[in-house]
Amino acid sequence: MKDDDCRTQLVEQAGRGLKIDTLGQFSVYQGGDLLTARHGRFNKVWELFLYLITHRNKLTPLDDIYGTLWPDEQWADPKKNIKNLVHRLRKMIDDTASSHNDAVIVYTQGCYRWNSNPDCWLDVEEFELLCGQAEAKSDSSSDSAVGTYKKALELYRGDYLPEFSGLEWVNPARRYYRQLFLNSVLELLKNYKVARKYNEIVRLCERSFLIEQFNEELHLNYLEALLKEGKTAQARAHYQYITSRFCQEFSSKPSEAFQRIYSAIKSKEKYHEFGLEDFKETLKQYEQEEGALLCEADFFTLMCRLESKRARRCNSPLSLAIITLTNHDYRLPPAGELRQGMDKLNHVIMHDLREGDFYSRWNESQYAILFKDMDHNMAENVLRRIKAKADEKNVSNSDIVVRFSVCPLQNGHF
Fold first, then answer.
1. Alpha helix stretches (DSSP H) within 158-231
2. Which of 218, 404, 389 is nearest to 291 (CA)?
3. Taking the alpha carbons of 372, 373, 376, 380 in that order, is the dihedral positive or negative?
4. SS3 141
5. pTM over the 0.85 mark
6. Which segments of 125-166 are extended strands (E)?
7. Over residues 265-293, mean pLDDT
8. What's phi and psi for 29, nearest 5 deg?
9. Where do the structural domains in the chain lie, given as residue ranges?
């Protein structure tokens, strides 16, 4: 929802029923009681709960639950264990319905199923319903469709169950809801474009960038709207910023569509000498980036050379570190798991280092970090902290290990 007041209102409307949030953060309310705070959010009972609501539209055999959620568990009687977990779950969410049809968790034909009912509000269910309603209204009533799309997008506060990103079975649902969000944003942008509401396009794109950073169509809509609003300098600055990010993340050059919008930007500009105001406008795009600076390998190498000269001149400590993701026998993990692990590790490094620090994704499995004004021991402490936080984010698992090494500057050389 838009704010805490709206969220509180929804909880109150649910009465003693359940209110379940899964987009951006997992939480379960029963009336005014936050069950996920009282019972914790990371245990087998909640994992079963999440599995049932994720697969709420089908009957799930006990063997499927056991085989998907806990394939490595050595239980003497898996079916009995799962029945015990279901019993604990029903007790925890006060599933004391008077009839079978009203129960939240239904057992039938040897299978379990989540039973959505009026006393249970689930954000993804509401989100999916509103997106469908908005799409159905698009042809007949654009104003009504816009209002419904806006209500739907207010519900999408981030990825589906982000705290459980390490669970493979969550990923298909996460991709589905993220794509549904993106499709809804693009449809709403079409409506705004027809109505020539370019300021609304700018605002919607800027909010969407917080969730989806690298969708080209979003950025093209944003740049076109800026030009329509006469904000040519801002359009140029954003073009330079986002094309450099695409190059940095995917080693890709601007597409034909980006090149066309760049030509449109240049045609709107009056010739003038590049001055400080233009430079400041460009830098504003980078000021929005929090944490340390992720830079390309060539730039990182140049900065290492410059900082080593500064360190020798000022007699200040300097340390170079490498963080590597491998499997337990020092080989590369599977490509998909390695990519996810490196993305999570990047988030940890960016927000754990100081604002003035910089680092580089050196290759597919390694990050290089330069620690300014830090000796070997100080740098090792930071690396241990990064490793601990990476473990909290489930970067390390049965297939992936986080390793690091650090080298101090001695006598002007590494």
1. 171-194, 198-209, 216-228
2. 389
3. negative
4. coil
5. no
6. none
7. 64
8. -110, 145
9. 293-408
Give the model confidence (pLDDT) of 81-116 as tens digits: 888 888 888 888 865 444 445 678 888 888 888 887
pLDDT score, position 228 = 95
Q: Compute the chain's Rg from CA coordinates.
A: 25
pLDDT of residue 409: 74
Helix (H, G, I), strand (E, B) or coil at 43: coil
346 vs 45: CA distance, rounded Å: 31
**The pair of three-digit structure tokens given for residue 37, joined into one six-digit string:** 């705070």
> Residue 82 in contact with residue 76, Cβ under 8 Å?
no
- Phi then psi for residue 390, to 5 deg, are -65, -40
Looking up tokens 């650090």 gives 406
Quick one: which H or E segment has residue 111? strand 111-114
**Residues 370-399: tens digit of each pLDDT:** 988 888 889 999 999 999 999 888 888 777
Write the burial class of residue 352 (CB in 10 Å: 0-12 exposed, 13-18 middle, 19+ buried): middle
Give the mean pLDDT of 321-333: 88
CATH of 293-408, one of 1.20.1250.20, 3.10.100.10, 3.30.565.10, 3.30.70.270: 3.30.70.270
Q: Give the mean pLDDT of 277-292.
A: 60
Q: How far apart are the first and last CA of the chain?
A: 52
Residue found under tokens 């070997």: 376
Nearest to 223 by CA among 207, 241, 236, 208: 236
DSSP state of 161: S
Which of these ranges, 18-32, 326-340, 376-390, has the smallest mean pLDDT?
Answer: 326-340
User: Tokens representing 375?
Assistant: 């000796």
Closest CA to 204 of 173, 237, 181, 175: 181
Residue type for position 255: S
Contacts 24+ apart (CB under 8 A), 259-265: 261/220, 261/223, 261/224, 261/227, 264/224, 264/227, 265/223, 265/227, 265/232, 265/235, 265/236, 265/239
